[in-house]
UniProtKB/TrEMBL annotation:
Subunit architecture: Homodimer. Heterotetramer of two MnmE and two MnmG subunits.
Subcellular location: Cytoplasm
Cofactor note: Binds 1 potassium ion per subunit.
TrmE-type G domain sequence ranges: 211-365
UniProt-recorded name of the protein: tRNA modification GTPase MnmE
Length: 442
């Protein structure tokens, strides 16, 4: 992606009431003025003033944002047109015919990064804001877009740069006693510890960005679909007293304890000669294998408790929580004690659901009541943080032994690695990979 020509794309999804076309580049004002017409031209009006005019025959609003006070740091014009597919497509054709090319995915945010409006961590947070699957995920993304993680990484980058300079100064002045020498190894270890603290946030970060794959499994008629409906707060699955009503997996998205969840209700697992039911059972097994957390439902009111438990034992499941269901039908029944997390509920009445959600959150993020983290790193950050932290114990040891050249080299490598996280030293192919994940118009 270059940063010197004029680009345009819809910044909103086509089909809504309004479509916003975003233009960015050195000639955005002139191109916008050719496409959008009014008694007052865009060039005559103060920047950031919304004006009413037309794009072709269609009434449209326009606003000009003068560089560098814009999202991309370039001149930007936004045209707010009617959102019907035909109207938006016609407006975009006029813009492209007047001197813009179609923007590539993430190109507006790429320009914001190149022009210093955002660092790379903040640019990634733009994508996280757009894709956030829960209120907590959205709030975390907003915090990181505002610079919560970037500021901590910038502080570490500056300290590593100072430590590198101090190590290398011993090479320039080998015969002089330097006042800071005794404290340098401790400062290196302090940076290492802070890198590790940031690294420890990758679990909650991945969960909030990617969601939790939660599967409801068990024998037929254990109440799996009733639990699905209870968790969703709606009648998503058919519920009957006939075993085997669910023949296929049912998938839905929801939020539990603030975490985005991909919820899968599976067909009841049992031996069957019915070829259709066999296919459903096989799909259930595959769903269980791919789960992060599994609710294995057991019928607390049934006459085949041993069979229920034997079936569960035959199917080891990731993050399994044994769930005794239908307590409303057997409130006083003595149930076997089981190894591992176990919860007693009634999907019909809601009894025990809060305890079940606590158990779910413990399996997903090690706490029953997840709270919004201050920051959370993603997989790219974590890989680089681990690499940088791994260099620092030896850097401190070399400094203590007077091996200042080796210490300086390791500190320089750690500095480069942390710089890659925030975009100071990142390679072009890494940038292409990051921004290509964005949608067009962002």
């Amino acid at each position: 992606m270059n940063t010197f020509d004029n680009i345009a794309a819809p910044a909103t999804g086509i089909g809504g009431a309004i479509t916003i076309l975003r233009l960015s580049g050195p000639d955005a004002l002139a191109i916008g003025g050719r496409v959008w017409r009014s008694r007052t031209s865009l060039a005559e009006a103060p920047p950031r003033t919304m004006l009413l005019g037309k794009v072709g025959p269609d009434p449209a609003l326009a606003v000009y944002m003068k560089a560098p006070a814009s999202y991309t740091g370039d001149d930007v014009v936004e045209l707010h047109c009617h959102g019907g597919a035909a109207a938006a497509e016609q407006a975009l054709k006029l813009v492209l015919a007047s001197g813009c090319r179609m923007a590539e995915p993430g190109e507006f945010t790429f320009r914001a990064f190149v022009n210093g409006k955002l660092d790379l961590v903040q640019a990634e947070a733009v994508g996280d804001v757009i894709s956030a699957g829960s209120d907590m995920a959205f709030k975390l993304a907003e915090k990181q877009l505002a610079g919560a993680l970037s500021s901590r990484l910038e502080t570490l980058y500056e300290e590593l740069n100072n430590l590198r300079a101090e190590a290398e100064s011993h090479l320039d002045f080998p015969d002089e006693e330097l006042a800071w020498e005794e404290g340098v190894p401790e400062r290196i270890r302090a940076v290492e510890n802070e890198l590790k603290r940031l690294l420890a946030t990758r679990g909650i970060g991945a969960t909030l960005r990617d969601g939790v794959n939660l599967v409801i499994a068990g024998r037929p008629n254990a109440g799996k679909s009733s639990l699905l409906n209870r968790l969703l707060g709606m009648e998503r699955a058919i519920v009957t007293s006939i075993p085997g009503t669910t023949r296929d997996t049912i998938e839905a998205s929801t939020v539990l304890r603030g975490l985005p969840v991909r919820l899968t209700d599976t067909a009841g697992i049992r031996s069957s000669s019915d070829p259709i039911e066999q296919l459903g059972v096989e799909r259930s097994r595959r769903s269980i294998e791919g789960a992060q957390v599994t609710f294995w439902l057991l019928d607390a009111s049934g006459d085949e408790l041993d069979l229920e438990l034997a079936e569960m034992a035959r199917h080891p499941a990731p993050g399994r929580i044994a769930v005794w269901n239908k307590l409303d039908l057997a409130p006083q029944r003595a149930l076997p004690e089981l190894d591992g997390p176990t919860v007693r509920i009634s999907a019909k009445t809601g009894e025990g659901i809060e305890e079940l959600l606590d158990a779910f959150a413990r399996e997903a993020v090690d706490t029953p009541r997840p709270e919004l983290p201050e920051v959370a790193v993603n997989a790219r950050h974590a890989r680089l943080l681990e690499e940088a932290a791994g260099l620092l114990p030896d850097a401190a040891a070399h400094f203590e032994c007077g091996e200042f050249e080796l210490a300086g080299l390791m500190l320089r490598d750690a500095l480069h690695t942390v710089g890659e996280i925030i975009g100071k030293t990142v390679e072009p192919d890494i940038l292409d990979n990051i921004f290509s994940r964005f949608c067009i118009g962002k």
